[in-house]
Amino acid sequence: MSEGQSELFGKSPAIHAKIGGMGALSHIRVLDLSRVLAGPWCAQNLADLGADVIKVERPGTGDDTRHWGPPFVLNEQGLETKESAYFICINRNKRSITVDISKPEGQEIIRKLASESDIVLENYKVGDLAKYGLDYENLKKVKSDLIYCSITGFGQTGPFSHRPGYDFIVQGMGGFMSVTGEAEGVDGTGPQKAGVAIADIFTGMYATTAILAAVVHRDQTGEGQYIDMALLDTQIAVMANVGSAYLTSGEVPQRLGNASSTIVPYQTFPTSDGWMIVAAGNDGQFRHFVTAGGEAQLADNPLYINNPLRVEHRKELVPLLEAMTRKKTKAEWIELLEKANVPCGPINNFKEVFENEQVIARKIQIEVPHPTAGKMKLVASPMHLSKTPIEVRMPPPTLGQHTDEILQERLNLDESSIAALHKKGII
């Protein structure tokens, strides 16, 4: 253990050995006041990179996502635990403390924890934490170089700032659903949300990047700062070329289902036993595709001889290609097209995902010990660093699992003081 690490974790090297590690952020302390998805996703990124993350939860109930099930994890006897699949996917490598921040004693605990933290992360409604003296303006008085990140639906400014923000609503407001779903006139037409909460997840990712930039700035200048993250801002930002296309042309993008607006064929195709994706990005790949399917003449058809013409005549071409792809199985097509160097892939269900040889080789599924579940399956972090690798030091915590430990370690409270806080319902 380095001298800096010893000082950081005070008088408890044994605890540091348990919660620390060799991650790039092993010198960073995070006080996580966030709940549900965007904030916890960000905090888990920081924790995976080695930061000591304390997750603050409500006594008795905790983070709402603890109750978002089924499914709940089964223990080794096959009995259901209280650990929801939703909660465990975003809270590994954290310690849980329960604190009632509506009470003055609880607010004082948070202030003391913040005073020795590098980062505070929260996703309360605009102005809510100011009522408790736990907003940035108040906490920077106890820690002048504090990095404080707020995540809300619509940001700290603007006419919508006080509205609650939900991922589903933001996917609609931010334009994503206007270009996702089957095209007009196709069976099942209509706007469609993503199958996962992308506005929350991307906001968590952007928040991670912003926090790390603030850490670098603090290390260079000694200055902390405030970070204002909004789901709506993020949703619009990640529309990428779609948003840019509108700003460039003034034309409102439309839904195309699984097809591309600028490349044909670049979409899903039916096979005799399922679906596959073909992404023929140039004329040569298109020729290889139709040749593999026994329809080489399509590549010489004047209407389909290059990509701009294929885009123009997609309504005539795509049914011909679908008739071709239905003649073989998904596996047969994947084998043929891989040999022909045509970009392609299956559409896997999650059983197929985790049985895939590439997924297995990359060790994306991991198993960790857990105090109530025995063994718990998780999805590994996708970050692979050669010098400071990701470590799963702790499983997702049970509610308040580390409350006493943290109060002893960080606030130097003795057993009688902690017992008094429990009795009052503060923790």
Structural class: alpha/beta
Shape: elongated
- Name the beta content range: 5-15%
Determine the CATH superfamily of the largest domain: Crotonobetainyl-coa:carnitine coa-transferase, domain 1
Q: Helical segment tally?
A: 19
The name CATH uses for the topology of the largest domain is: Rossmann fold
**Rg (CA only):** 26 Å
What characterizes the major β-sheet? 6 strands, parallel
Total number of domains: 2
| CATH class call of the largest domain | Alpha Beta
Helix proportion: 25-40%
Number of strands: 13
User: Are there runs of 5+ residues with pLDDT below 50, and where?
Assistant: 1-18
Mean pLDDT: 92
How far apart, in Å, are the first and last alpha carbons?
Answer: 32 Å
Can you tell me the CATH architecture of the largest domain? 3-Layer(aba) Sandwich
Spatially, the strands of the biggest sheet line up as 5-2-1-6-7-8
Question: What labels describe this entry?
Answer:
alpha/beta; Rossmann fold; 2 domains; 6-stranded parallel beta sheet; 3-stranded antiparallel beta sheet; 15% strand; elongated
Commentary on this structure:
The protein is built from 19 helices and 13 strands. It is of the alpha/beta class and 427 residues long. The chain folds into two domains: 3-238 and 361-424, Crotonobetainyl-coa:carnitine coa-transferase, domain 1 (Rossmann fold, 3-Layer(aba) Sandwich), CATH 3.40.50.10540; 266-270 and 275-346, formyl-coa transferase, domain 3. The strands form four sheets. A six-stranded parallel beta sheet has the order 5-2-1-6-7-8, sandwiched between helices. Strands 9-10-11 form a three-stranded antiparallel beta sheet, covered by helices on one side. The radius of gyration is 26 Å and the shape is elongated. It starts with a helix and ends with a helix. 37% of the residues are buried.
